């Protein structure tokens, strides 16, 4: 087996010498990159090629990591790539990852690509539970991750179930609560909707600002033993060295900030941490693996260099990068405001168009109703006219009958009735004729009154018909309002930034102004921290009743104890860090005088 492996390695070496190149695959958090490298290339040559390909200028945070046996190692910049002790089978695989972490992501991360790579790496570490994250913070971080991917929340687009295929929360958090996937999605969506108006870059930065306060963020853990042979964990991060109990990765037993370490020596698998205070004891520990010792030493040197670099005035390159980043940010904000203004005007135009369409439909309905009323009025007028004509004819007929009855009565009066019986009969007939004539006269008068009333109703119906026609004429004579959907603002003015006439004049009041700026930053930081803590507490209260206590992991219990005590890994360091930043800022101002 060994002879076969040796023959394969020899064959690969022969092929490389003939081709004078070898293939490399670099795995980033976004994509896999393939390169053809020259045999004489050093680690620096390959690393710079990857950074140029990505457009990355903040190179000091990153490195190329490779797997070797049961551990990992980082590519050395001053050593040939093929001289490293690693598998040589092509393509040789490297992972482009963050090797060192910033103390404050908002202050130190300048480029968008740097921020994006950190966001992807930290998110992966949280989901894979390499970094412990409490449940309430996991929900809030998931909402920012969704915003970075989908943009502003839109209920018409982001309907229930749109997160069903997304990996949003650590499995530990999901198992800890008696909640369905729909319930988790609802909680996350509520937070997601509150982030409206942020860009992708802003959402990623908010994610990192929350993640950097997690106890295990940016810490590299190594198994060590002290002089007594006790098993411990060594944590190396941007703030210093920390010693942990193996069962508690959240709270260190003892910490050594970089500014309190005088020297770190390494010899024959043993490390010695010498504090700045010479009266303090020297802490010694050792690791059984040579590769791990070298990795610890690399991380200590790199983190200490960055720690000191942060406390000096920025280099010219960094100042230029920050200046370009500020200009780019200002340009994006102007473009964003312009787009928001255009969107607002477009929405207003659409609302005005909808209102005009609604008004037009309303006017059409009113015209239709008026037309129907006119038709009904015309039908009523015709019916009343017909009734009036019939009543008038009946009145004429009754008048004619009354005239005939009168003639009959006069004829009876003139006729002489000789006998008494005939006279009585005639008187009775006369009386009956008179009564009949009286009834006919009354009926004739009633019919005449009825005819007059029908004529009056006909006149009123014609008046209603005239009014309905006038209203219809008024509605149809209105001119429609022209619609315009292209109510877009004209192109905004062009802004040119010039630094030629910019100069600084520091006077005696500069120190007072500097103090006021520092105090203002402190107040803003406290307000943001208070808002974030309130948001996390609210999320924790909402889901606390569904928690399954028997599923809590040791890290969950430790985190709850630390929260109740109000202690964390960051709390003690940030006081000294803030003081040193203030001093560095004052020194920077004096250096510019």
From TrEMBL:
One of its GO terms (molecular function) is actin binding. SUPFAM superfamilies: Moesin tail domain, PH domain-like, Second domain of FERM, Ubiquitin-like. CDD domains: FERM_B-lobe, FERM_C_ERM. A 1,2-diacyl-sn-glycero-3-phospho-(1D-myo-inositol) binds at residues 76-79, 294. Residues 22-311 form the FERM domain. Residues 313-408, 441-478, 515-549 form a coiled coil. Keywords: Cell membrane, Cell projection, Coiled coil, Membrane. It comes from the Eukaryota. PANTHER family: MERLIN/MOESIN/EZRIN/RADIXIN. GO terms for cellular component: cell projection; plasma membrane. InterPro entries: Band_41_domain, ERM, ERM_C_dom, ERM_FERM_C, ERM_helical, Ez/rad/moesin-like, FERM/acyl-CoA-bd_prot_sf, FERM_2. Pfam families: ERM_C, ERM_helical, FERM_C, FERM_M, FERM_N. It is found in: Cell membrane; Cell projection. It is a peripheral membrane protein. This is FERM domain-containing protein. Its main location: membrane.
């Amino acid at each position: 087996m060994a002879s076969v492996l040796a023959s394969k390695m020899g064959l690969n070496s022969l092929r490389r010498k003939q081709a004078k190149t070898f293939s490399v695959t670099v795995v980033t958090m976004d994509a896999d990159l393939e390169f053809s490298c020259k045999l004489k290339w050093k680690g620096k040559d390959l690393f710079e090629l990857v950074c140029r390909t990505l457009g990355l200028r903040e190179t000091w945070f990153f490195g190329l990591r490779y797997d070797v046996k049961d551990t990992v190692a980082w590519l050395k910049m001053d050593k040939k790539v093929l001289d490293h002790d690693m598998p040589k089978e092509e393509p040789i695989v490297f992972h482009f990852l963050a090797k060192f972490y910033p103390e404050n992501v908002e202050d130190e991360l300048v480029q968008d690509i740097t921020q994006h790579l950190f966001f992807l790496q930290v998110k992966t570490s949280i989901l894979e539970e390499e970094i412990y994250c409490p449940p309430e913070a996991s929900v809030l971080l998931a909402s920012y991750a969704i915003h970075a991917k989908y943009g502003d929340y839109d209920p018409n687009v982001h309907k229930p179930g749109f997160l069903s295929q997304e990996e949003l929360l650590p499995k530990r958090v999901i198992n800890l609560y008696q909640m369905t996937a729909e319930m988790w999605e609802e909680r996350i969506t509520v937070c997601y909707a509150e982030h409206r108006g942020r860009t992708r870059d802003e959402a990623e930065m908010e994610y990192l600002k929350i993640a950097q306060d997690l106890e295990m963020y940016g810490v590299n853990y190594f198994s060590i033993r002290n002089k007594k042979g006790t098993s411990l964990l060594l944590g190396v991060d941007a703030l210093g060295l920390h010693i942990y109990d193996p069962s508690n990765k959240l709270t260190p037993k003892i910490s050594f900030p970089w500014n309190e370490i005088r020297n770190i020596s390494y010899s024959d698998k043993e490390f010695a941490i010498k504090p700045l205070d010479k009266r303090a004891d020297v802490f010694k520990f050792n690791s059984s693996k040579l590769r791990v010792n070298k990795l610890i030493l690399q991380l200590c040197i790199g983190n200490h260099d960055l720690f000191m670099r942060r406390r000096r005035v920025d280099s010219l390159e960094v100042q230029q990068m920050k200046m370009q980043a500020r200009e780019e940010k200002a340009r994006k904000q102007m473009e964003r405001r312009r787009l928001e203004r255009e969107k607002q005007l477009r929405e207003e135009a659409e609302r005005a168009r909808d209102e005009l369409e609604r008004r037009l439909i309303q006017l059409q309905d009113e015209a239709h109703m008026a037309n129907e009323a006119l038709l009904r009025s015309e039908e009523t007028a015709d019916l009343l006219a017909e009734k009036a004509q019939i009543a008038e004819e009946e009145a004429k007929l009754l008048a004619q009958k009354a005239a005939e009855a009168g003639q009959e009565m006069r004829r009876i009066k003139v006729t002489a009735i000789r006998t008494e019986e005939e006279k009585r009969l005639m008187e009775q007939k006369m009386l009956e004729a008179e009564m009949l004539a009286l009834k006919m006269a009354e009926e004739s008068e009633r019919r005449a009154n009825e005819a007059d009333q029908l004529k009056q109703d006909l006149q009123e119906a014609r008046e209603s018909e005239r009014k309905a026609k006038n209203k219809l004429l008024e509605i149809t004579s209105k001119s429609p309002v022209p619609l315009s959907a292209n109510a877009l603002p004209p192109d905004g003015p062009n802004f040119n930034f010039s630094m030629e006439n910019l100069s600084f004049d520091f006077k005696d009041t500069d120190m007072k102004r500097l103090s006021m700026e520092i105090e203002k930053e402190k107040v803003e930081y406290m307000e943001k921290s208070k808002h974030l803590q309130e948001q996390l507490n609210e999320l924790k209260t909402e889901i606390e009743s569904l928690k399954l206590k028997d599923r809590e992991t040791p890290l969950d219990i430790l985190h709850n104890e630390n929260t109740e005590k109000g202690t964390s890994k960051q709390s003690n360091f940030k006081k000294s860090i803030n003081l040193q930043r203030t001093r560095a800022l004052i020194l920077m101002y004096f250096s510019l005088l």
